[in-house]
Amino acid sequence: MKNTLDLFQRITNDLLKDEEENPVAGHIPSSELFNTLDLSLKRDPLSEEEFEKVLKELIFVSPRTATKGFFNQLFGGRNDKAILGELLAVMLNNSMYTYKAAGAQIGIEKVILREICDLIGWDEHSDGTLAPGGSMTNFMSMLMARDAASSKVINQGMQQKMIVYTSKASHYSIPKNAAFCGIGRDNVRYIPTDSEGRAEVASLEKMIEEDLQNGGLPVMVNLTAGTTVMAAFDPIRPVSEICKKHNLWLHVDGAYCGSVLFSKKYKHLIDGVELVDSFSVNAHKMLGTPLSCSIIVVKDKKHLYHSFSNDASYLYQTDHDGFNLGKTSLQCGRRNDALKFWTLWKSVGSVGLEKIVDHQFDLAEKAREYVRNNKDYTLYSYDNTIAICFNYKGIPARDICTQLYEHSELLVGYGTFQEDEFIRLITINAQNEHQDILNFFKKLEQFVEEHAALFEARVDS
């Protein structure tokens, strides 16, 4: 183990050094991947020297998501204390289904969940769990909504057509989850959005009433705190009133931007969150914890037990249910995703998490200011988001993003909203500073200038 840890440290130190000069790894087209790298698995083992060489080659060409050149996905950066927790979790290799298997690690998960419930404003009847990604926490919310609407479903299966409502801008996992849990993709109703990408409340009320008249059983409304493209926040409070009127489960998918919960300045963006039935947040997004760290909490923990508890005498042999977290989880064996978030939170405090969130909004405002003050840019997004959507000199967004990627200059993606396609800059890496945002635009502009002939041809075509 000591030799392997020494190898890890050598490769890591070399990687950190190389990232300073090359924030974007060299591009390997997918068509050339297996001809470029030795990824084959063979009968005979490699020597230690060959193994280190092959491993280093692989690591050095993998996408670099923690550098100042990565703006592509809804995560990024590298927090040292959170990584420490991740490494320790791997070394301990606890499974989080029972206290007997995880011991004190159960305590750190329970503390995190309790603190989040308290921040929302819920009482001691609330609780939660962790799952491998926002798609899974959304799935869990839909299962609980289904089971709350009909207690017979768990044992007898679907007896009536159930209906779920979500905005057109919501995460793609919603229709997938409807298929998984028996509700069906065709029974997902898509709420229209306003000019800023938020769900229109008036449209929702009409849709529910129409489905009721047609004999359907509305069971759930899914709202989003930070839509995937525009990072918009759906209105919670007025939708909560509709859900109470019709006895619907209300879930808020805060996987992307639900971490505004930690910010006094931006918590107003999820005003009314205390009224919902379930809420999810990914600490591996705005809070910079390594993938994955997805959390779902519920106002009443009875729904966790109702939907996910199942007796297993070979497993639950000691301690009460409150410390046997497999009773409230979708999974049985489950890695310890809580420790890395706990080490981060413990090291910086709640005030530190607040600073992380506020800093990302500050970086976003710096980017919007630059776009607004430059005539070559067109801005499509709005204030109070960490997504800056823009176009440059009328060049198709996908062309710029693809060429930057293939030339290993920057990793940034593009998106579409209301027929407009644009570059989507995400300021989710809290290790970045104002100058890093300005450097992004300078590099983009320089790249377009150096490849002017290519882009002019694409614009003309």
Individual helix count: 16
* pLDDT < 50 stretches: none
Distance between the termini: 58 Å
* SS content category: alpha/beta
Q: Give, in order, the helices and strands.
A: HHHEHHHEHHEHEHEHEEEHHEEHEEHH
- Gyration radius from CA atoms, angstroms: 24 Å
Count of strand segments: 12
Binned strand content: 5-15%
Q: Give the CATH topology of the domain at 94-341.
A: Aspartate Aminotransferase, domain 2
Give the helix proportion (percent range): 40-55%
Architecture per CATH nomenclature, i.e. the level-2 architecture of the domain at 94-341: 3-Layer(aba) Sandwich
Mean pLDDT: 94
What does this protein look like?
The protein has helices at about 1-20, 35, 50-60, 80-90, 100, 105-120, 135-150, 155, 175-180, 200-215, 235-245, 300-310, 340-370, 395-405, 435-450, 450-460, and strands at about 70, 125-130, 160-165, 190, 215-225, 250-255, 280, 295-300, 375-380, 385-390, 410-415, 420-425. With about 450 residues, it is an alpha/beta fold. Among the domains are: about 1-65; about 95-340, Type I PLP-dependent aspartate aminotransferase-like (Major domain) (Aspartate Aminotransferase, domain 2, 3-Layer(aba) Sandwich), CATH 3.40.640. Helix 4 (about 80-90) packs antiparallel against helix 13, helix 6 (about 105-120) crosses helix 13 (about 340-370) and helix 10 (about 200-215) packs parallel to helix 11. The chain starts with a helix and ends with a helix. The mean pLDDT is about 95.
